[in-house]
Amino acid sequence: MVRVADEGDKRALISRRPEAFFTTPHYDGYAAVLVRLPEVASDLLAELVTDAWRLRATVTLRRAHPDLGGSAAGSGRAGKTSC
Question: Cα(81)–Cα(72) distance, rounded to whole angstroms?
Fold first, then answer.
């Protein structure tokens, strides 16, 4: 399970790559997708996990890890993941 920014991102991932991303009724209304790991390249998985971390990390943590896309300004939302 990987958190995403919102339900729109969730729907986009699932519609673009249904063989890799899916959901179950348990996750209805929750901004997260389930991932079939064998169907996702490691670089895309790393991007998804980094984006998920960025969504939940405090400004202090994001500033401490600029290599993970943190910004000095601590801007809110993580960037869109491309698949």
Answer: 21
Report the alpha-carbon distance of residue 15 to residue 61 in Å, rounded.
32
Q: To which residue do tokens 């063989």 refer?
A: 19
* H-only helix segments in the chain: 7-16, 42-56, 59-64
Q: Mind listing the pLDDT tens digit for each residue in 8-45? A: 999 999 999 999 999 999 999 999 999 999 999 999 99
**What's the one-letter identity of residue 9?**
D
Backbone conformation region of residue 68, classed left if phi is above 0, alpha if psi is from -120 to 50, else beta: alpha
**Contact assessment for residue 3 and residue 31, using Cβ atoms and an 8 Å cutoff:** yes
Q: How far apart are CA 1 and CA 35, in angstroms?
A: 6
